[in-house]
Amino acid sequence: MNVVPVQMHDEIVTKAYQARGYDFEESREAAKWCSMAAWHGIKTHNAVKALHLDHLFGAGPGGTVPGAEIEVLPSRFAAVEKWNANYKLGQSVASRAMERAMQLADEYGVGIVTVDNAFHYLWGGGYVIDAANKGYIAYTNCTTTLAEVVPFKGKYPTIGTNPHSWGFPTKDLIGFNVCIDWATSKIAMGRVQQLKREGKELPPECAIDENGNYTTNPADVFGLVTFGDHKGYGLSLANEMFGAFSGGSLPTIRGHFGEDHPNEKLGISCYFQVTHPDALDCGNFAGGRSQGENVKAVLNDILGHGNENCLFPGQIEAGSAAESEKAGGLLFTDVEVEELAKMAEESGVAFDRAAINKA
Amino acid sequence: MNVVPVQMHDEIVTKAYQARGYDFEESREAAKWCSMAAWHGIKTHNAVKALHLDHLFGAGPGGTVPGAEIEVLPSRFAAVEKWNANYKLGQSVASRAMERAMQLADEYGVGIVTVDNAFHYLWGGGYVIDAANKGYIAYTNCTTTLAEVVPFKGKYPTIGTNPHSWGFPTKDLIGFNVCIDWATSKIAMGRVQQLKREGKELPPECAIDENGNYTTNPADVFGLVTFGDHKGYGLSLANEMFGAFSGGSLPTIRGHFGEDHPNEKLGISCYFQVTHPDALDCGNFAGGRSQGENVKAVLNDILGHGNENCLFPGQIEAGSAAESEKAGGLLFTDVEVEELAKMAEESGVAFDRAAINKA
Q1: Is any Cβ of chain A less than 8 angstroms from the Cβ of B193?
Q2: Which ranges of chain B have pLDDT less than 50?
């Protein structure tokens, strides 16, 4: 594996975004959250994916708007803010929204920021882990750009892969933050495409064909299935509901930039919530434990009794972060390094191969 | 099916609770939420189940405390309240906590009540549907009395069946409130017991035996499995986390009343959150729609396009409520009527069989 210094990566990615018209601040934010994903081993949401996404949906008709200003909309409610992101870059908006939710939680115990006219923020886990690093309980959900998932027992994809991400501040207790973070489809569309490229079959009952029947042939996939049958469907629907109450339009035309939908909106919606742990602390922990000691005791109980080989959610990502830390940079495959080199060339940045070590 | 008038049912159940030492107010609340469950066809959480639960875990050492007072703990945070329920009856505490969360949401946009030293509140869906009837977006989770579920790939049950319930105010839009409400185990322990009684096998991969292997023999069940593998595990763990941050003790001894755990606590924890829909309304809905019209358009889109035979979460319960409405009372089986008659007799209430019609 190649070890790419974070500073080098961030400079290239920042410049790549700037070359696409984004201002310095939002480009720097975009690079930071790409680093965050790569640092935690999230291959699907690193800079390569981010810029590919920008290429597909970004700056252009209906896509993100470089340099857009976030409008904080008037509200009579102190602990909840409503933002019109004006299609500003997703990572910028998400990191600022989570930051604001933390400030609101400092004041009210809980803070929510709901965002209309938003754009894909990439890895939700990054924002909640960052908030957990700062000591908060954090949560985010969003509607995803395309409706690729069918309702339970359905035939036509009308809901997104709609992820949920929760982060809990447990780093000082068990070495990493518990982070529950996944999409509500059983498998990702990216996985379908990968299996198609590799000529392999899908796992059973993960996707349907155009007749609404289960298929394991990636070429026949018309819609994805939610995890856990009606339960995952409920969780995906929840994001659609939060989106619909905030300002999101019809899921089946979301992200269909370039098509003619004069009276509809094509952007996604995001929801951020932060709770201050002190606001939940009822001050009466067993055995005279502090709040932190109690959380640790509960976690130890859960993975005790013969469950020692189980993992907590977030533990795999924390392991990848530890490897990045040990190697002293982002662990990239040869292919990813070449993508980064191409990105540097396109953005007019020198690509210093000598700075990349092998791990 | 028998049609039991709500007033008759509530009087018997109230008296039954009073006969066990609960005061009039909490007994009336208990009866109300039993009605609410029965009205919506929730057979597992009606009065029969409630009083059985009270018999097992209720008033007595470590159980609920009749007439207990809820203490609102001091907090510097205005939008989040911390309650010590002092083991007051679960339905009383839950209904009051949700009511308070609604008041907080009126003021701050969002309101949270977290409850320490709590007791099983029965059907979570009831509280969020009630809040949705009043126009709010509501959510609750709790840790369940016993740890019956194994962590993903685990061997020993260390987490609860820990349910989540979300309610969205959609009754005026589509005729009922969307209510997402389920436990995080693939099947309920009650279902295991039922299949055992009936000499039937479990569905595959729902439970493990004492060696940590999957079993379909109800007699060999040592622990239940979460729905959706690691995803349901994350959702169950989330409840344990909220509990641990608030005041919950070790899950493996929770509900083990009567055992000797001098330095530990045996009660459950609950979390209630209400969000005011106005606080999420960014005021820019496509096609000039109002918030409600937009939510309706999104819901119609989701169950359109060939998905017309799918259901929304909460729709089955709404169908049962409509049947109750049509019949003019609670639809009880003969067995349930006899349980109610027994309850009446034990509580010294006359049981007017003539008031029960057939539907």
Answers
A1: no
A2: none
> In B, residues 7-66, which contact A (CB 8 Å cutoff)?
none
Residue with tokens 């987490």: B159
Name every residue whose Cβ is closer than 8 Å to that of residue A296 and which is 6 or more positions away in sequence: A170, A173, A174
Spell out which residues of chain B touch residue A150, defining contact as CB-CB under 8 Å. 307
Other beta carbons within 10 angstroms of residue B67's beta carbon come to 15
A277 and chain B in contact, CB less than 8 A: yes
| CA distance to A101, B118, B133, B259, B324, per residue, from B65 (Å) | 38, 10, 30, 18, 33
Residues A25 and A45: their CA atoms lie apart, in Å, by 20
Q: How far is it, in rounded angstroms, from Cα B47 to Cα B55?
A: 12
CB A158 within 8 A of CB A195: no
Taking the whole predicted model, whether its pTM rises above 0.90 is answered as yes
Nearest by CB to B251, which of A180, A277, A298? A298
pLDDT in tens, B46-89: 887 777 777 766 666 667 899 999 999 999 999 999 999 999 99
**H or E segment at A9?**
helix A6-19
Distance (Å, whole) CA B96 – CA B33? 12
- Please say if the pLDDT value at position A51 is more than 90: no
**Contact status, residue B293 vs residue A249, Cβ threshold 8 Å:** no
Torsion over CA: B276, B282, B284, B285 (sign)? negative
Domains and CATH numbers, chain B: 66-186+225-320 (3.30.1370.60)
SS3 state of residue A157: coil
pLDDT tens for each residue of A182-211: 999 999 888 898 899 889 999 999 999 999
Question: Is B329 in contact with B4 (CB distance < 8 Å)?
Answer: yes
- Residue A10 and residue A47: Cα distance in Å, rounded? 9
Chain A residues in contact with B233 by the CB 8 A cut-off are 313
